[in-house]
Amino acid sequence: MAQTFFRLAYHGVFSTKNRAAVLTEHILPELVKVVGGIIRDRDGALLAMNGTANHIHLLAMFHPKRAVSDMFRDVKSVSTDWVHAKFPTHASFAWQSGYGVFSVSESAIQRVTNYIEGQTQHHQTISFEDELLALLERHGIKYDLKYVFD
């Protein structure tokens, strides 16, 4: 093939350290812009992002020259530095060490976008912990509960 063709979409989810409720209505909208810039600077595109006070979901396209693990490492590291600089009262802010990431087919992008946009309503009936376990099970990921949350 003379060219390389790709369209790689990922649904990522991760929480604040110990699921601390620090992503306020002042932080989250700006955080979306920051994360979008981080991904864009690495040749990707943020399609959707939302969350609650203790976790975020994002839907993004990543360039294949970037490892998924590197993208999540950079998103978490750079956004942590931004929170510390922009919100000095959150000097202890941190993300959990891990993350969940799931590939998304083209036919499911709108459904996942709707799911991400509906996080506020969704979490009126389900906790982040239960949501994450359901995502892992839905995607056939085996896990040991004692290592899922930090």
Automatic annotation (TrEMBL):
Return the SMART domains for the record: Y1_Tnp
Q: Which InterPro entries match?
A: Transposase_17 (IPR002686), Transposase_17_sf (IPR036515)
What GO MF terms are annotated? DNA binding; transposase activity
An example Gene Ontology biological process: DNA transposition
Q: Where are the transmembrane segments?
A: none
Known Pfam families for this protein?
A: Y1_Tnp (PF01797)
* Domain Transposase IS200-like, first and last residues per copy: 5-119
What's the protein called, per UniProt?
Transposase IS200-like domain-containing protein
Q: Which organism is it from?
A: marine sediment metagenome
